[in-house]
Design a protein that fits this description.
alpha/beta, globular, about 50% helix, single chain, three-stranded parallel β-sheet, 8 helices
Length: about 160
């Protein structure tokens, strides 16, 4: 388990790792590096926003389009999409999301700052269908979202 690996790293390096934020399941590389080097753990989304320049483009856009394979409770707790919607909210930009599947309620989507979500599972007969024909399903989802996009732009 990850806990066991963390304990082994602590024993080998003499450094505290196990309870440090950012060294969990998604932070395995950080935990390994932290055991043997002086590292600073940074938020992944902040790094993505900084390296992509998205924060500089946001003021000039009319709409933010984002996506995720599966929108669920983890989406509300630090996935990239949360950082994007937080930035969009700062600039008062509408956000739509395309995803493989969504398990979030309308209230959760609203709290996240998403105006609409279009899920491939909603237009698929099964998960396998959604995966096998993902490109075609995404194209269909975009087509279905056109009226909503027109409404957002006032046309």
């Amino acid at each position: 388990s990850l806990l066991h690996i963390g304990q082994l790293l602590e024993k080998q390096s003499g450094r505290k790792i196990v309870n440090v934020a950012g060294t969990g399941a998604a932070g395995g590389i950080a935990a390994g590096l932290m055991a043997f080097f002086d590292v600073t753990i940074k938020s992944g989304i902040l790094l993505v926003l900084e390296s992509s320049g998205l924060q500089y483009a946001m003021p000039d856009c009319n709409l933010v389009i984002t996506g995720e394979g599966k929108m669920d409770l983890q989406t509300l707790d630090g996935k990239v999409i949360q950082g994007i919607t937080r930035l969009a909210r700062q600039w008062k930009k509408p956000v739509i999301a395309y995803c493989g599947e969504s398990h979030l309620s309308a209230d959760q989507l609203q709290s996240l700052g998403i105006n609409a979500v279009f899920s491939l599972m909603e237009i698929s007969t099964s998960k396998e269908d959604a995966i096998l024909f993902a490109e075609k399903k995404l194209s269909r989802a975009v087509s279905l979202s056109v009226p909503f996009l027109a409404q957002l732009s006032g046309k």
